[in-house]
Amino acid sequence: MAVKLLCLGLLLAQLGPSRAKQQTCLTSASNCDECMQSGPECAWCTAPHSNVRCHTLKGLQRAGCRKRYTYNSQGGVQVVRNDSSSEPVSPEAVFLQPQEFSLRLRPGVRQSFPLTITMPTGQHTAELAMDTTPVPAGVNVTFISSVNGNLLVVQVNVEAARCPSESDDSSQMQNRTGPWSVHITPRGFSQSVKLEITLECQCDCTRNREENSLGCSGRGALVCGQCECNKPYFGQQCQRDTDLFFSSNEDACRSGPNAPVCNGRGKCVEGFCECENRVNPTERYTGQFCECSNFDCPYHNDRICGGHGRCECGDCLCDDDWTGEDCSCSMETASCMANNQKLCNDRGMCQCGICVCEPPYTGPTCEDCPVCQGPCQQHAECVECRAFGTGAKKDRCDQECGYLIVTMVETKQDVPQTTAFCKMRSRDDSCVFYYTFSNLPSEGRSTVVRTKECRPN
């Protein structure tokens, strides 16, 4: 199979779509593998007894699954062999670098890596093509190239469309998910690059079974946060026995030895709770023991979860850009942006769209400070001692005001208008002097009117 590198996206094996279609994560997935295969954006929560297992990372976060419990492998690329050489082996040979890669592909997630090809002296690269060994079904490879003298830099993109299903013809594959070896060779040359490709169709956590886990009441294995119960036990923690299914014993419908049947919110039918209906049809009880509700959550502004989330088992699952126990806290920050394009002027924190300012700063964006000195007041004493040799700092001017460079002008009209114009009164003679001040990265500069304005005696 030959592919010319001047094409930006030629398909080496069009046996599946180049990009996985946008899919909704299978929230009803029974295990991590099924969840991860439902879409490239899908993640799995491994926290024990989580109410939400399969969702996007944001969805799991809103459901209360902490980051350390989320599993969302995106695959990866690793350089296996990268021998260096400044010249081709012979004037007629090419040199490829690196020489071998290992690729882990999650379906729908593209992996990219650069490949440098040093061409023989005097050989042009315009018509260079690539030969490849057969590519596995459903795996696509594309190239983007750029030429720099006798160097050809190629970005190689590799992507798998999906994981194989049971119905796929795998007669030509030793392993349905790899590893497979694919070689890329510049056409007309013998040197090649080896790709070792493996599909990630199984979650790593499935390999870490905790048999007879305490989280499963010692009656099953904990796998990716879920219990796989030994027979005849069942339930989220393998706490129930199937022998009670069809008995009249109501203990199977109690959350504990002395707990009310179905928490007093339903009736026990053949070992299962049937939760009672509410007067309001939008309100309902759920859970193995009717322990959850979709209406017993915090309210804000007379709306459950502030109108920015949904109630699940007594907790608010907030919409994107909202947080807080009652989803009343906006994560939007535009209202906290100061005129200098800094959040809360770098003088406070933006909380729920409102600036909480550090004293003495105030105002909606922490830009007000009634007691703060402006540049005129802050530098007046140094300007006076440097320009006139008077003022409070005249005896220590060199030590405290050495940072200031002063330029004297004759009249106020000679003062540059690019900076703030200051008017200050000297303590020594009650005369007024005029100046400007500007801060530079390593020093300050001031332009001062040479003559003070003094009141006549």
What's this entry about, in short?
The chain is mostly beta strands. Helices cover 7% and strands 32% of the residues.
The tally of helices reads 4
Mean pLDDT: 82
Judged by helices, strands and strand pairing, the structural class is mainly beta
CATH superfamily of the largest domain: ntegrin, alpha v. Chain A, domain 3
What is the rounded Rg? 36 Å
Keywords: Calcium, Cell adhesion, Disulfide bond, EGF-like domain, Glycoprotein, Integrin, Magnesium, Membrane, Metal-binding, Repeat, Signal, Transmembrane, Transmembrane helix
Signal peptide: 1-20
Pfam families: EGF_2, EGF_integrin, I-EGF_1, Integrin_B_tail, PSI_integrin
Protein name: Integrin beta subunit tail domain-containing protein
Describe the structure.
This protein has 457 residues and is mainly beta. It folds into four domains: 1-165 and 174-207, ntegrin, alpha v. Chain A, domain 3 (Immunoglobulin-like); 299-330, Laminin (Ribbon), CATH 2.10.25.10; 332-372, Ribbon (Laminin), CATH 2.10.25.10; 375-449, Hormone receptor fold (Irregular), CATH 4.10.1240. The chain is 7% helix and 32% strand. The protein has helices at residues 32-36, 57-62, 375-388, 397-401; strands spanning 2-4, 42-45, 54-56, 70-71, 76-81, 95-97, 100-105, 111-118, 129-132, 139-148, 151-160, 180-186, 193-199, 220-223, 226-229, 233-234, 240-241, 266-269, 272-275, 285-286, 292-293, 299-300, 303-304, 309-312, 315-318, 322-323, 329-330, 348-351, 354-357, 404-409, 421-425, 432-439, 444-449. A six-stranded mixed sheet has the order 1-9-12-13-7-5, with no helix packed on it. The protein has a four-stranded antiparallel sheet with strand order 6-8-11-10, with no helix packed on it. Strands 30-33-32-31 form a four-stranded mixed sheet, with helices on one face. It is flat. The model is unreliable at 1-22 and 170-174 (pLDDT under 50).
